[in-house]
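Budget justification, computational time. The allocation requested in the original proposal was used primarily to generate structure tokens for proteins on the priority list. As evidence of use, we reproduce two of the resulting records. The first is shown immediately below.
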Amino acid sequence: MNPLHPKKLLLTKWTAVKPVSRNKHFLVSKVIAPEPPELVIEWVELEAVYSKAVTRINWRELRDETLWRQGWV
């Protein structure tokens, strides 16, 4: 897998290995900046492509290949 950086995640595509609320394909719709800007980015919002449901996760979970695949597979 390519190295990930939280600032470069916006609008990237992801596929859940196991469906999340009956959704499999997601798009990073928002990178949530911390309140004091000096802190590191922790959270991103994933928007399901089909249902438009939004899920907030820790962006480091996207590195786990047992949970997520980069791109729409």
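The second record produced under the same allocation is shown here.
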Amino acid sequence: MTQLIPQTGNIPRPFASIVSQPYWDACARGELMFQRCAACNGITHTPAVMCAHCSARDLAWERAAGTGAVYSWTTVWRPQTPDFTVPYTAVVIDMDEGWQMLSNLIGCEHDAATIGMRVAVEFHPITDGVMLPYFRPVA
């Protein structure tokens, strides 16, 4: 068995755009953010200029609770580049506010992921001080 850990290598880092900068700034503060449309109340993730539901341009940032449940996952043993530490388990999380996000599972064995597993976000640094959101199982 192999314990899943945050990436520690020189993995590709995200580059913030004008649209995504508030998201990455929040991650640096240890906060997970999403956008909600004032016109239709729809949630948009990843950061966008317009609502994915109604195309309105009236999106506001909200802080997520940072909790959710595993919707799906896959464990990677052959990464795209050798910079990644394997194994890692990519997870799609159903966030409690009603949106999904892709991240990595940490803090458990590589074969522990199950659909519906409750998880909570925690942030870990990579190069240049960028903080990435990872998810850890919670009781």
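A brief technical remark on that second record: The mean pLDDT is 95.
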